[in-house]
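To: structure desk
From: M.T.
Subject: fold request, one chain
Message: Could you run this one when you get a chance? Sequence is below, nothing fancy, just the single chain.
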Amino acid sequence: MNIQLTQVCIHNLRSIKEATIHLRPFSVMFGMNDSGKSNFLLALRLALGNGNIDEKDVFCSLETPYNTDSVISIDLKFIPIGEDGQQTETFNELWGLHLGENVATDDEDKEFFAFRTEFNYDSDKEEYIRDRKIINEWRENEIVVGRSLRYKTLSAFEFIYLDAQRDMSSDIRDKSSMWSKQISKLKMSREAKTEIETSLGVLSNRIMEESPFLQQVSRDLASATNTRNSNVEINPVTRSVDELYKGLDIYITQNASSSIPIANLGLGTRSRAVFASLKTIVNKKINDANETPYFCMIAFEEPESHIHPHSQRQLVRDFAGIQGQRIVTTHSPYILSSSNLNNLIYVALRRAETRFSSLSSLGLTAEAIRHIERFVLNTRGELLFANAVILAEGETEEQALQVFFKEFFEHEPYELGVSFIGVGGKNYLPFLRVLESIGANWYIFSDGETAAINDLKSAMQQLKNLPDKPDLSQYDNIIVLNNSHDFETYLLDENYENEIILAINEYEGIEDEDHQDPYFDYFMQQHHGESMSPRSTGTPCESCGQMIKERLLRDYCSQGGRERAICDCMKAGKTKYAVPIAKKICSNCTDERKYPPKIKTLFDKIRNCLEG
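Reply: Done. Structure tokens follow.
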């Protein structure tokens, strides 16, 4: 196409008060329901099509009530690109001739074409009037419009919109669909048309010869006309090629089955068939546009609808085969995980206004992008749709916190749009970079161990581009356990010893059938006196300089032994005990003891966030 839409500026359209969106050849918009994704697609339809607006389409809020003086404007900026997809300094000959004096230049003497679509209220007609104007200057903080844009200029631009209700079997029968319009344009030579229509006549006559019923109907209809020498001709098959197209259908053969009409297949297959037919139609239009310029913007709204998760991953590859500029709005983490990070645009509703955040603005290194794609998009893409995200050190905390959350809020986390993510120790940074870029609400629940604190400080230092590691206490959304505790020792320090032992015993049952000992007692008996893993003494060796390690024995009989046994038992079971212990604390404890203090602090902050 040798042309690309790179920027869109919108004012006062529905939930979009003011926004500038940067687009790429393939852009993917994602966000919660009702965040404003469809409103952006509406803006493109209004700018590139013939639609109009009414009162309900004008932005308004408690602070900005509806006013007929409000003007809706949509600015589009196009740049010339070469065959390699990179920006060129000038439009090619076809586009240069078509755009003519509408072409402007930027501060670097590079050409662009831009126009504004504006809607003003006409009090005499009591309706909104659309006007389009050329944009002469486009700067970061200033856009200058000029004369009116002739409608003929936009004849080379097409906007194709596929909503979530697409269905190939319906498109075949809908005369207004792109498919039907394309089929109606099919051309063939006069000789071929005559030959086919002769064959159709022969086929129709043969059917009549084999059907006494149709012959009788023909005679009865002739008698009913009450006209001398009248004749009625019944054509079981149309004799016109043009009419034949109207009966076109698609049949699919799967494995060894017989051919099945596409209308009898599932919505997923019928939906993907729409994409396949669109590819053929659009690519043909673009390939045929050798003498006339042609630009096509294709918008796919929720393409994942009706499609199996594994097939959703394939959609991005399917769309890559469609020429033209493409934009997708989606709720599918599978589509996000298959997309290039730089193509992602996050859409959120903040204080009744839609905000757009492009992940390409992160300016990350290739290694940082690889980490985000590996640890975030490919594994926990759902967090990109969350109202709030809680990052915890590991799987134990991730599981336990969700039990406490359900008890505290009386809802499952997903019901409130909250995601819990175990980052696996050191992997905070990829998650934080994505969450910061989209303006998401995030919290960290961290162990208090020295290594964990240092890792978290390093992540915050890189995230905030600080010269030194920061003091974590300055961040209101970071909760750190006291006294160098990990999660297990923290629960012990908060005096949940009885609940922990009850939960472990109930989970494991009776271990020693001869003595009927509860599991925890059995654990103490079996492991007391065992050799522990070597631990550093903190003293370097005088010969090699490495830290001297010592191997201690487990001691569960001396003072504090029971607490050490509980801690060892929890760590031995780690993730399998997380949920039972959390549930036991919630069921056995009342009032303030139902939620460990640090967890209560975390949930109070989340509640304020959700209510705000």
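Reply (cont.): The chain has 20 helices and 23 strands. Let me know if you need anything else for the meeting.
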